[in-house]
Amino acid sequence: MTAPKKLFIKTYGCQMNVYDSxxxxxxxxxxxxxxxxxxxxxxxxxxxxxxxxxKAAEKVYSExxxxxxxxxxxxxxxxxxxxxxxxxxxxxxxxxxxxxxxVVGPQSYHRLPELEAKAQRGEKALDTDFPExxxxxxxxxxxxxxxxxxxxxxxxxxxxxxxxxxxxxYTRGAEVSRPADRVMGEARDLxxxxxxxxxLLGQNVNAxxxxxxxxxxxxxxxxxxxxxxxxxxxxxxxxxxxxxxxAAHGDCDKLMPYLHLPVQSGSDxxxxxxxxxxxxxxxxxxxxxxxxxxxxxxxxxxFIVGFPGETEADFQATLDLVEAVGYGQAYSFKYSARPGTPxxxxxxxxxxxxxxxxxxxxxxxxxxxxxxQDGMVGREVTVLFEKPGxxxxxxxxxxEYLHAVHVTSDxxxxxxxxxxxxxxxxxxxxxxxxxxxxx
Length: 439
Ligand code: 5AD
Ligand code: SF4
What we know:
The chain is an alpha/beta fold.
């Protein structure tokens, strides 16, 4: 028997890339590859890339440069670029970095086995099609091995919204939903393998239409799976929220009280220029509806500062919206012009000014985040334990609000769901004491 070949995958970007990397590893498993976390011993290195901002894309080229000595030491090593940079730049990657053997986009990676064989023959292998066939129908069946208690599950991909700043409609293509029965089947398999929490993924996950009652219909069906204890979903668009998805936050116990709902800006003028098709007011009203059914909902958002045309008054409107909403978690970015998007043609805000605004926004968001976290002290939460902590005897997991919580306990093990009283709030996590099992 020949020794198995070793595969090293480095994942950039969003959770969907994390899910795709798992599926790619499984797919190459069928070609005799086993995973390694050491690039130096790999026979194949795949970078699963992100194109969302310029910095993210440039990281890929610097990483490829760093791989040169490995390729020199092991000429049999195959290097591949997958994901959104692969989709956006295609053959350009091989031209710019000749050590790349394989380039595969996010909608064609079910063809990895053929591409790998081509690379092994010494040919350059490239596939950035948006194929007719559904990749999920052609991917290797998922293995049955035990796995950790949390998993991502892609249910929807692509975007038809065309926000003026965003590459996603070009890298991931048009909105496509996976049929509910396939999602249910994959979820049941994950639960059989030890998963207790599933995060449903989509670039516009609440535009999911693979179920006749949309995303909330899927969530309600998933909630019927014994052994699946927690359901989350990300990322949503404010315009795709429907009444039943809001209601589910109040009446579906397994749906966690955490909502990531990007708004990007608090200025109606900028929201219009971004082609968001909602206003700051309509966003705030929507959040209020969620809070009626789930007062303790923890809100998370995405913000872009320095979008072309943003004035100090527009930026102030973003700060005002943040004050009005109150975020427990947030991600904020300086606008980055992306080739091919409508906004890339427009005059940019002074870079120094954009930096200063980002710092001001982040200071406010960090304050809100810390206040939310500190407000958990004394409260009882449930924690799904995922792994040992940094200190001996510690276990770490996530509360229903997605806060990292650590406890010192010799009774809880990975995969346990326990009631925990929060006793301290640290920089990025909470400390707690186990007070009992969840029945
Ligand atoms: N520049 C800066 N941030 C961006 N995002 C998307 N495109 C850009 C861009 N061109 C941010 C948005 C989005 C998140 C995933 O990344 O806030 O919600
Ligand atoms: Fe990055 Fe968007 Fe692609 Fe995810 S879908 S990897 S965030 S460009």
